[in-house]
Structure formats: structure tokens, C-alpha cells
User: Which sequence fits this backbone?
DNA sequence: TGTACATCAGTGAACGCGCGTTCACTGATGTAC
DNA sequence: TGTACATCAGTGAACGCGCGTTCACTGATGTAC
């Protein structure tokens, strides 16, 4: 821990292990990820890996956190390039970035948005990474509501507020009324629902050009959450 | 194959094996499903199972087909009870049935809508079972379009038609214009996106009462696909 | 109704395999004087 | 700059385990006459 040189080579080793493990996710999935196989791929003994990860689950956790962060960073940087005032375009950029990342890293997508790994419990500290991409979307909605004045139906709001975990939602979107926040959450699940179906093969036979379909979906969801619509 | 008595006990054995395997999906997931463990649970030797399934994948296929059929039957029977003319209610009934089934069988839901099992390729004959629930939704949309006259935007239709695999879509929904079919498909992915997030734990901290949220989602999606709205 | 035979269900041992994890160890790489 | 020592990275053998699948077999259950 003292030597910066050692710390650097150590970090490099950790990166190499994770990269090898990531490659292995592609052929076999999370359940089949094996420390021995990773070590074999690196021309090392399996016991060597225990210098870097206490056990298999710890490696998995690292991969999951990396995936969340990677998705988060991609979404953030894409959305940051857009003029703050153009909320529709920000929405579009964020959604496109998410899909792009998902298609570029289908196995990491499956790792975080697919079936939970049986017997694996994600540690609490993964939450920060997990909410990064969500945060981008939430901020767009919040900026929109902070700018425009909305006539919100109070009765409608109550129903939505009951359904939502408002304490948590208000941290991310303080200026967003419950009804809009709920629609935002629906849009969120809609995006990932489409991507999961697309990546997991459930759209075969019904969709020919996913790109075009997704553009349509972006427009639909941005309408749904009321982006750019003065009410 | 000749004796009906033997065929019956044989079918019963198959059912017992599948039931035991299903129970095992709950603790460990599809990847961890093991013939040896199933046999152990049944107080039999593992080799005995090879009388009924040629290998592990064949058992998995049977479970998948059963899950699809079970979901299909649940959706069909719930939707059939509703007055044919009340399309909104039919939509509601179908969606509710899907969610109910998913919550009652989370592991079978994960089996068919979660991460594809690595190395497993579903045989072609599973498609029939897989499209059963889809068919219910498609029929509602088709009935709606057959009844109401819609002013469809032609230009809009063309874009949607390009995105869709029209040959397949038109078999299920011959009377539905492409733009509506695409919105229907989005609604479809929306429903399952919500359910996946709900069952896989991605809504923890943002949604308190899933039932209420889902009811709102049903209303939203039924509006989206234009149900009961004369245009 | 009784018997000979064929078909089936299930057994038990074995095959070769891979896994996570531990542990005592050998060298190499840094640190302190 | 040189040496003694501590810390680290990686080895190799071993532990106990579970897996899918095969195969020759024993009984039980039906079938045909």
C-alpha cells in the first residue's frame, strides 16, 4: 500500500483480471464465470487471483460496479454535449447512449439488467454506480419541470405519490410532481424493456430495424413524460 | 407407447420430474439446474431421468415451453371473460393476468424473459408456445382497429412499416396499421420492462406500491395504443 | 386363467471433468539504514 | 552505493465437492397365445 510503483502494477493486474473476466462473460454468462478459467486464460494459477479478489463474488461485484459506471459515464458524457435548454435533445442523447452502450456490451448489460445471479447479493455500495444513468434521465425531467409551469392535476398526483417511494424519488427530482415522476419511471422501464427484448432475442420476427424502432420509441417516451410541452 | 396405462404413469413421471425441477429453479436459477439434484430430490438415481429426457437441455426446453404455455393460458382465460366489445377492459384483464402470473412464478418468468441461458438454443417448436400471450394482446389491438375507423398518417405508417417485420406482424394483426402495431409492440415491451425491473429488484427505492403503479401503467399503455379512442 | 416373452423403469458403479478455496512455499521487488 | 530485511506476487499440490452421461444389470409390468 505504501509504494506507488507497486500500487500501480497492482491496479494494472486488477484491470487485467477484470478484462479477462469480462471477455469470459461473453461465452458462458455470469453463472459460468470461473476463477480457474480466468487464471488459465492469463497463464497463471488460480490461487494467484486470490491476491486481488477475496473470492468469486468479489470479482463479480467489481464487474457489476464497472458495468454500471461504464453505462453511467457513457450516458453522462453524451447528454452533457447538448445545450441545456434543449430538453428533447438531451433526452434523445441519453436514450441513444444507453442503447449504444447496451449493444456494445450485451453481456455486461445482461449482467446488470438480466436475471439476478442466484445466491449473489449485491453489496450496498453498488447502489451509487447503479443510479448514475438513472440520474441523467432524472435531471432532464427535473430541469424541464423547474423551467416550465405545469398545471398538475392534484388528484392524479395523489395516486402517483402513493405508488411511488417519494422520499427516494424527491432526492433525484425535487421539482417534479409525482404524476410526472411516475411517467418518467415508466419511460425508464420502457427503454430497458425494449433493450432487453431486443438483446435477449424477443423481438426477432417482429422488428426488422431496431434503430428506427428505437428512434420512434424515444419520441414516444419524450412525449409521454411531457418534454418540451408547455402545459 | 402401446399401453395406455404405461403412457399414463409415464406422463405422471414426466410431470413429477418437471415439478421437482421447477422447484429447483427457485433456488439457483436455470444455470444451476442439475439432473442429479432433481433425482436426489425424488429419491432416485440420476440415470433414471434419462428414461424421460435425453439430456439436461431437453428438460430445460420442457420447462420453458411449460412456462410460456402457462403464461399464455392464464392470459387467455382472463381476457376471454371480458365482453368482446369492451376493449379497454380486455387490455386491462390481459395485462393484469400477465403480472399476476409473473408474480406467482418469478423464476419461470426469469427463465423465459431473463438473460438467455448461455449455450442453450431454444428449438424452433417453442415459438408456438412463446407467442401465445402475445397473441392475446395482438387480438385486442386487431379487434379495435377492425371496429373503429382510424385516420392514419400515411407518412408515419411508412416509417413504422420500415422498422417492423411486417410479414410477421400482419399474421397476428392483419387489420392494424403499422404505426399502431409498432405502438402495440412498444406497449408490450413496456409491460415486460416494468415487470422485469419489478421482479429483478430495480424498482426498490423508487416504487412503493407496485400494484398501484401497474394500474397506472395499464391506463397509460391502453391510451398509447389508442384503445377505445375514436379518431 | 395361465404361461412365456418382450418391454419398460430404475439401479449402481464408473468415466472424466471442472470448480472454489486453502496452504506452505519460492523468488522477486521494494525499504531502511 | 551496498546490504539486511520485510513485503509482496505467484506457484503447485491438495481438499472435497458436484456435475452430465454411459452402461450393463435387475425386477416389475404389461402382452399374446
Assistant:
Amino acid at each position: 500500500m505504501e509504494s506507488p510503483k507497486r500500487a500501480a502494477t497492482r491496479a494494472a493486474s486488477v484491470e487485467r483480471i477484470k478484462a479477462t473476466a469480462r471477455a469470459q462473460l461473453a461465452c458462458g454468462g455470469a453463472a459460468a464465470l470461473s476463477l480457474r478459467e480466468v487464471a488459465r486464460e492469463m497463464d497463471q494459477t488460480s490461487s494467484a487471483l486470490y491476491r486481488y479478489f477475496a473470492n468469486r463474488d468479489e470479482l463479480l461485484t467489481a464487474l457489476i460496479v464497472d458495468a454500471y459506471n461504464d453505462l453511467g459515464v457513457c450516458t453522462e458524457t453524451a447528454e452533457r454535449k447538448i445545450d441545456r435548454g434543449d430538453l428533447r435533445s438531451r433526452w434523445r442523447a441519453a436514450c441513444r447512449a444507453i442503447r449504444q452502450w447496451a449493444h456494445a456490451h450485451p453481456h455486461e448489460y445482461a449482467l446488470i439488467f438480466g436475471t439476478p445471479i442466484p445466491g449473489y447479493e449485491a453489496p450496498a455500495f453498488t447502489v451509487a454506480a447503479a443510479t448514475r444513468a438513472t440520474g441523467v434521465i432524472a435531471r432532464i425531467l427535473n430541469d424541464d419541470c423547474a423551467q416550465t409551469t405545469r398545471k398538475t392535476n392534484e388528484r392524479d398526483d395523489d395516486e402517483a405519490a402513493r405508488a411511488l417511494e417519494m422520499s427516494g424519488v424527491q432526492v433525484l427530482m425535487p421539482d417534479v410532481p409525482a404524476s410526472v415522476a411516475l411517467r418518467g419511471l415508466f419511460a425508464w422501464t420502457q427503454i430497458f424493456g425494449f433493450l432487453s427484448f431486443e438483446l435477449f432475442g424477443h423481438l426477432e420476427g417482429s422488428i426488422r430495424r431496431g434503430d428506427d424502432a428505437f428512434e420512434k420509441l424515444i419520441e414516444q417516451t419524450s412525449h409521454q413524460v411531457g418534454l418540451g410541452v408547455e402545459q
In short: Chain B touches chain A through 52 residues (CB under 8 Å). Residues 54 and 79 of chain B are 37 Å apart (CA to CA). Residues 2-3, 6, 9-10, 13, 44-45, 47-48, 51 of chain B lie near DNA strand C (CB under 10 Å from a C1').
